[in-house]
Sequence to fold (127 residues):
Amino acid sequence: QVQLVESGGGLVQTGGSLRLSCAPSEGTFMNYYMGWFRQAPGKEREFVASSSRDDSNTNYADSVKGRFTISRDNAEKTVFLQMSSLKPEDTAVYYCAAGRALVRILAPTQTTRYDYWGQGTQVTVSS
Fold:
């Protein structure tokens, strides 16, 4: 069973930046597409960003385009989410997810396409 370990969450002021990291505990990292999702209190989990297994294709939610960047270091077997110009509405628990990639360019946005999930890391943006 692949475990995903997230780090990098915390408290930041509006306009600030944070970088989240996620690394799977086992498996061949390049066999997975990777995604970030978030869930605010009282809301459903929503898509934030995703990256294909070779990092050639990325997708972003409209709400984070131009502010967040997903990247992966296949040598270090880590995926990152760089978050800038943070807003209070970005406050949520952020989850890393991985899915087995049979097609190189896949970078799904749906939660149902992911096989493994991390425990989540809290991001709080104060106004």
